[in-house]
Amino acid sequence: MPKPRVIYWFRTDLRLHDSPALNVALNLHPDCLYPVWTWDPHYVYRARVGSNRWQYLLECQADLSKSITELNPQSKLLLIREAPQTVFPKLFKAWKITHLVFEKDTDAYARERDGEVVKLAEEAGVKVLIKCGRTLYDPDLLVQANNGKPTMSISQVQAAAKKLGPVPRPIPAPTSLPSPGDTSLPFSQSKPAPSPDLNSNHRSTTDESYANLAGPNNDFAIPTLHELGINEATTPHHGGETLALQQLDKILTNKTYTATFEKPKTAPTDFEPQATTLLSPHLHFGSLSVRQFYWGVQDTIAVYHGTPSTPPTSLIGQLLFRDMYFGAQASLGHAFSHTHNNPQCRFIPWHLPSTISPATNRPTDTYTIDSPQAEEWFSRWRDGRTGFPFVDALMRQLRTEGWIHHLGRHLLACFLTRGGCYISWERGAAVFEEFLLDHEVACNAGNWQWLSCTAFYSQYYRCYSPVAFGRKWDREGRFVKRYVPELEAYGEKFIYEPWKAPRADQRKWKCLVGGDGMSIEENGVKVYPKPMFDFGERRDVCLKGMKKAYEVGLYGDDERVLDGRWREL
Ligand code: FAD
């Protein structure tokens, strides 16, 4: 029997340690192993990916490639610039591949893509091996153990997990790797490299024009941001398995922190260092194995002398939340990311008035989907110029650094939806998708549903105040001053409500409050926007709207929602 010739397809698992799928590939004892990354046009051209996440991805790829070469100087990550659906049949033939191995991905888009690839492999006589390693539990098995239903609460995850048994222990990283064979691409054609559009975060090229399959130098190199036509990144956070493992080690070394972590007690206003682990981008790119993280925490707890924290607030609890969203998405597919057709997501007529006039059966205000006022609120929220310093600081942190604390995300999401603007969670999720380093379809959509009280959580009357919430964590406003430096000179009394400061003080502190945040500073006097609305008034309007929507009780898959009859209710 000839020895296997394997393509190992890296996607959600940019690491060598604890990779169950890579382990499967190595257990085949292949003659040659091609470590491949295919440049999926879905992500390159269609998904919203800001420059910070691009840089993080390229860093993960570079680190992985270096580690592969350390284990085998003949090998490295082979970055191929074409869609897997079109390039694999050619690679199977050119490289005489017998096996394709990859980590299971239950994202709705990925399932479709992988289904197509599996079919193509079968047609080419290539055996496909798929192994789960992205979550603690295989999301499909988790759903099965939850009686076939989407996992919508942490207790459901815990009950289902019990049936599935303990999370497997991590597998050590390989100590050697087989070489790839001949990597020439007889079918590859040189095409002109794209001209970069440095003013845009999005690709300026079309799928068609995107260079040579193995890169401009035909060497499977990892591209630079410049080559991709993407703006320079601004994040201080960096990617790669090496950094991920160092960061995890540092956390686990602090045994008390690890064993007694309680999420609600961590401050969203802490920076350098932040209060939580900041491991989410590493988990997203798979540069850190979630099982390695899980067992690191469990082993620390096992030898800890004090009383450890427990789920849902503990670190293990946080990882279970992650699995919960993956399970919900695995079960609901594409519908999970939207309200439309989603049987678990409450329908809220966002943007629409909370009251209908009994006389006319029409909205009592003009708050419609096209309301210019709501549009203005949305863009001011997105740009970090709402006039509420804590909201703006968080949004600016997100835009420049790509990561914000969980409770900061809570405030931003609540403010945009049920606790201020009454704008759909889907629009907020799209903004987070662009800017988050850790953007995960399942976790982003799921958490937005939680915060907007459309699924997972229903206490819509519990609302975050953009003033009191920040003050609770950081009276002096150190966090606000870091990200909204124009308010640097404002003291404790006015830092969360600068509009209340007397005009003379505003002048003295060299920052006047007024306008919509588009004004330009003059003579060294800066301008910070006035709040875009009276928060108390807006909270009442939103509460009434939510109460009504809950009474009507429609879900995204209700016929009356799908055919627009909800307007008559
Ligand atoms: P830690 O508190 O240190 O937790 C450890 C790990 O547990 C995290 O790295 C993460 O993988 C997981 N985790 C913790 N909380 C959650 C949670 N609520 N949901 C899912 N996983 C969790 N997380 C993402 O990974 N990707 C997203 O796209 C994402 N979008 C979000 C959008 C909104 C509106 C909100 C409110 C939360 C979102 N989260 C998302 C969840 C959470 O905010 C981040 O996982 C967390 O803040 C990451 O920081 P950390 O690594 O320091 O977390």
Q: Strands of the biggest beta sheet: in what spatial order?
A: 3-2-1-4-5
The CATH architecture of one domain can be named as: Orthogonal Bundle
Low-pLDDT segments: 190-211, 352-357, 362-370
Q: Percent of residues in helical segments?
A: 40-55%
Major sheet attributes: 5 strands, parallel
Order of helices and strands: EHEHHEHEHEHHHHHHHHHHHHHHHHEEHH
CATH top level label of one domain: Mainly Alpha
* SS field, number of helical segments: 23
SSE class: mainly alpha
Q: Would you tell me which CATH topology of one domain applies?
A: DNA Cyclobutane Dipyrimidine Photolyase, subunit A, domain 3
Indicate the mean pLDDT. 91
Number of strands: 7
GO cellular component, one term: cytoplasm
InterPro entries: Crypto/Photolyase_FAD-like_sf (IPR036134), Crypto/Photolyase_N_sf (IPR036155), Cryptochr/Photolyase_FAD-bd (IPR005101), Cryptochrome/DNA_photolyase_1 (IPR002081), DNA_photolyase_N (IPR006050), Rossmann-like_a/b/a_fold (IPR014729)
Keywords: FAD, Flavoprotein, Lyase
Protein name: Cryptochrome/photolyase FAD-binding domain-containing protein
Which features characterize this protein?
globular, about 40% helix, DNA Cyclobutane Dipyrimidine Photolyase, subunit A, domain 3, FAD, DNA binding, 7 strands, binds flavin-adenine dinucleotide, 5-stranded parallel sheet, Cryptochr/Photolyase_FAD-bd, DNA_photolyase_N, two-stranded parallel sheet
Structure, described:
There is one protein chain. This protein is mostly helical. It has helices at residues 20-27, 41-46, 51-71, 84-94, 108-123, 139-145, 154-164, 225-228, 241-253, 255-260, 280-285, 290-302, 315-332, 372-383, 389-401, 406-416, 425-435, 441-451, 468-473, 478-483, 503-508, 535-552, 559-562, and strands spanning 5-9, 32-38, 78-80, 99-103, 127-131, 511-513, 526-528. The protein has a domain at 342-535: Orthogonal Bundle (DNA Cyclobutane Dipyrimidine Photolyase, subunit A, domain 3). The protein has 23 helices and 7 strands. The protein has a 5-stranded parallel β-sheet, sandwiched between helices. Strands 6-7 form a two-stranded parallel ribbon. The N and C termini lie far apart (69 Å). The structure holds flavin-adenine dinucleotide. Flavin-adenine dinucleotide binds at residues 263, 276-280, 283-284, 315, 318-319, 321-322, 325, 405-406, 409-410, 413, 432, 436, 438-440, 443-444, 447-448, 451. The site of flavin-adenine dinucleotide has 29 residues, from helix 11, helix 13, helix 16 and helix 18. GO terms for molecular function: deoxyribodipyrimidine photo-lyase activity; DNA binding; FAD binding. It comes from Amniculicola lignicola CBS 123094. Residues 4-136 form the Photolyase/cryptochrome alpha/beta domain.
